[in-house]
Amino acid sequence: MTRLLYIEDNPVNARLLEKFFALKQRLHLAVATSADQGLALARAQVPDAILMDINLPGKSGAEALTELRADPVLRGVPVIAVSADARPEHVSRMLEHGFDAYLTKPVDFTELDATLARFLP
User: Fold this and answer.
1) Which residues pair with 29 in a beta bridge?
2) Mean predicted confidence (pLDDT) in 25-38
3) Domain at 2-119, CATH from 3.40.50.2300, 1.25.40.10, 3.40.50.10420, 2.40.50.180
4) At the N or C end, where does the chain have fewer CB atoms within 10 A?
5) Which tens digits make up the pLDDT trace of 50-75?
């Protein structure tokens, strides 16, 4: 079963993706509401991919990505940024920081499927 982790502090956004992924067979979505909770879940359950909001309370998504990339077990896990900030310079900066892909909110589900297909078996 494919395991995805979604790190998102907004309950409406989290619920939207939970409903979307509930329709997918052979896929389990875990949701964390903070970067620290997401890092702990990732270390405990090593997901196949991570969807991560950039603007999280406390530690940002970019800071959490730095920690993921420093972890020998998690450094190869694809991490997809999910953010409402669609400014080209922000997208470029996050990709340069090391995110594998960048999706804007509201999430386009066709684009989400296509992006995940690039990283999942």
Assistant:
1) 4
2) 95
3) 3.40.50.2300
4) C
5) 999 999 999 999 999 999 999 999 99
Q: pTM score, two decimals?
A: 0.96
**Strand-pair category, 101-104 with 2-7:** unpaired
Rounded CA-CA distance 97/41 in Å is 22
Long-range pairs of 20-28 with CB within 8 A, sequence gap ≥ 24: 20/109, 20/112, 26/1, 26/2, 27/1, 27/2, 27/3, 28/1, 28/2, 28/3, 28/4
Question: What's residue 72's pLDDT?
Answer: 98
**Interacting residues of 92 by C-beta distance below 8 A, sequence separation 6+:** none
d(CA 109, CA 18): 12
Cα dihedral 57→59→64→65 (10° resolution): 80
Asked if residue 21 lies in contact with residue 113, where contact means CB atoms within 8 angstroms, the answer is no
Every domain of the chain and the residues it spans: 2-119
Provide the 8-state DSSP code for 107. P
